[in-house]
Amino acid sequence: MEWNKLLCEKRQVPAHTREGDPRNAFEKDYHRILGSASFRRLQDKTQVFPLDKSDFVRTRLTHSLEVSSFAKSLGQMAFADIISSGADSSVDTDVKEKACSILECAGLLHDIGNPPFGHFGESSIRYFFERALDDDKYTFNGRRLGECLNEQMKADLLNFEGNAQALRLVTKLHYLVDEKGMHLTYALLNTLIKYPVPSTEIGKDKTNIIYKKMGYYLAEQELFEDITSSTGAVGCRYPLTFLLEAADDIAYCTADIEDAVRKGIISLHRLQSELERGGYTENASETARAAYDRMLEKLDEKYKKAVADNMPDPERNAVQNWVIYVQGELLRYAKDAFVSNYESIMRGEFSSELLKCSDGAPIAKALSDTAYRLVFRSKYILRSEITAGNMISFLLESFLPAAVAFDSGCTLSPMEDRLISIVSENYMAIYRKYSEGKDESFKLYLRMLLVTDFVCGMTDSYAKRLYSRMRATDYSE
Question: I need a labelling partner for 90 at 20 to 30 A (CA). Which of 13, 83, 127, 420 fits?
Fold first, then answer.
């Protein structure tokens, strides 16, 4: 891969260029994103704590802002090293600036396709379709839905993915001017595609990160192929995606701990004992072991300083300051991993996550494992997820029959007619546009995606409000 092609400024619709505009193409993307309603909705979507009333804990919006900042910083550090070392003569300050603009934008968008109520929202959608595709309750022309779809259509629904939904949203569903979404550059769109494979290839090679999840739906396959052929990243992961992924990993593995301490789910001393118990594996390098031990020492130092400074809540203060330190260290390790594996990445041969092959791997793993055990599996989170899961399941169960019957020649029941009428007009327009001329199977598939589009576009508050109204427990306007 070569940067003169990777930094592709092509858009689905050619951009209008204003005379005297000093911004590069990717800085223009940034302003398109910030001004979009789809991005603003992230302020009312869960990051970790579903239905939380606290003003402190992170939402999808604040998380995305942090990832954007980390991603840009990683780009600045990595490309500065590449330029100074002369590792790639094609990389200059112009390439660096454009790459950093792309990373900044990608950080803002990386979670834009996620449904309400956090990652459990994704799991709830997948579980619903596991049952619905083979359930006699949901049929089309006398056949179960799973019998009416081809293998990739079924796999798309069974493996529903926020990343694939993000590509769909920014290229179609964000209907502002036309059916081409936000009109973003192909370089940015390619950065967002973390897993450049269809749903039918998930798990094909467990040693290669690109097969971990799907990166696009069948509905966007032609667009995906146009994007990757235009950037030159055919059959491999786009280089900047590695930095975006690392930024996301660093943000959530540290922020989840900080938020949990702030909410009183984890105490500082419990955190210390968990990290001491987790430790590093026997095959960790000496530098990785030293980095891990230094992390533990820093946590203790931060707490002692907070006590000495008579901070009103020394535990919370210590963790907040320690998190900043850890983030800085992990950013440096991720940058080093990108630079040291740069040639392999550019050949499309690198198959791991940056942090996993860095000296920061034990730190990142210990934080993630601790967050999973003490936060994600806490009774507080589990109770909230049960509530959220019930809401999503109810909405899918209610809207799927209406979507299946819609535009099929069947007569909708009075309830189905009303249900389909409250689906976003933008989403309906996209369905009509892309279903035109397609066979019945593909149109059914698009109508089923219409349901996931509608549910994924909801904020937590809207989903909760609609659920309550449909269950006749909320009669407010």
Answer: 13
The count of C-alpha atoms lying within 13 angstroms of the C-alpha of 385, restricted to the half-sphere facing its C-beta, is 19
- pLDDT of 278: 81
Q: Would you say the pTM of this structure is higher than 0.90?
A: yes
User: By the 8 A CB rule, do 129 and 214 touch?
Assistant: no
CATH of range 3-117+155-238; options 1.10.3210.10, 3.40.1160.10, 3.40.640.10, 3.40.109.10: 1.10.3210.10
> Is the CB of residue 106 less than 8 Å from the CB of residue 192?
yes
Report the greatest alpha carbon distance in the chain: 74
The string of pLDDT tens digits covering residues 119-157 is 888 999 999 999 999 999 999 999 999 999 999 999 999
Q: Angle 239-262/361-371 helices, nearest 10 degrees? A: 50
Q: Does the pLDDT value for residue 347 go beyond 70?
A: yes
Cα–Cα distance for residue pair 127/12, rounded to 1 Å: 34
Measured between alpha carbons, how far is 347 from 237 in angstroms, rounded to an integer?
A: 10
| pLDDT at residue number 52 | 54
Nearest-CA neighbor of 322 among 374, 255, 270, 274? 255
d(CA 443, CA 181): 20
